[in-house]
Amino acid sequence: MTDTAEQDERVSDEDRKAQLRRRRLAAHRGARRAMARFGFHRTLRERLAGLDGAGDVYDLDEPSDVYGDGVVEALEAKVAGLLGTEAAAFFPTGTMAQQVALRCWAGRTGNPTVALHALAHPEVHERNAFSEVGGLRPVRVTSEPRLPTAAEVRDFEEPFGALMLELPLRDAGFVLPSWEELTEVVAAARERDAVVHFDGARLWESTVHLGRPLAEIAGLADSVYVSFYKSLEAFGGAALAGPAELVAEAKAWRHRYGGLVFQQFPTALSALIGLERELPRLPEYVAHARVVAAALHEGFAAAGTPWARVYPRVPHTHDFQVWLPYDAGVLAETAVRTAEETGVVLFGNSWDRRGPDLAYTEIHVRSAGLEWSAEDVKAAVAEFVARLPEPVR
Hints:
The protein has 393 residues and is of the alpha/beta class. It has helices at 3-30, 44-49, 71-83, 94-109, 121-125, 129-132, 150-154, 179-191, 207-210, 214-218, 244-256, 265-277, 282-302, 328-342, 374-386; strands at residues 33-34, 87-91, 113-117, 137-142, 162-166, 195-200, 223-227, 238-242, 309-311, 319-324, 344-345, 352-355, 358-364.
């Protein structure tokens, strides 16, 4: 195949994926039932309407924010209070927040090496930002689809200044350790005189599985990052929480990184609304995700689908994975076509290839998902499977 032909094939593949995404979003918007209806599925008008009631969480007669004061400071204080830390700093992105946090810790420990999981977000989704931008040196403690164990941390062959733990570990299936395992891992890092940083993008919903309140979980770490849009439905943004001295230095680095934005009031208000409205509902979503996961398992078993997997079988949060023995493209097309024909979105996300004729997708259960009974889930599985070709055996 010539270079031109290869380029044409890549462009064609990209076009197909873009078209499929447009169809998926259109099906989502028109569906009578879906597991989640995220903000990014909505129009600008609908998103702005989501700020209705902002006066309930902040005095709208106060002056607007300028370079991080006003409503942004109020959000920072709210987060610090929820996580039980001395201070918190608002960041436009979690990528920036974590680079800054670990850069600050490297300066304090004198060691730029960061121990983390091979599936941690910076290793998989950030284009080597730790090393390319932050001057940090990531080392992988494990690549197993679970959090590192205390023994792996204690016996790791290289010294490191910081241990970063993603809670939950998204790319392994939104998995969490038990509370006992987490405390043992943190203790093992302390034995090595390392600081502990939590990538808590989805920490908000981890309280159910860990069986502890947010402040107690965050209190295990030296610093914590949390996201405002992944579970709280804010427009975007993140926060870094920890000791006041660290947060003050982080704010200086935030400025250097270009993160001191002139005005952030729409995002800050949406985050405060999310903390008020969505945060209290997350345990309910987690509980119902377990109902949905069990129904999916039973539905695929009843449909005779070989090697269908729901992982974890009992979800640790309100997000989990479904694995099926088909080509990712086949599953993606079938999911969209089923949604278009039935008005029901069972699988609203993309499918990723993980081997020959093996792919997985993520299931997110939010307020819209509470409308699904177990029987609704099983019926949707039957509709989906009926449109699939014969599986590879």
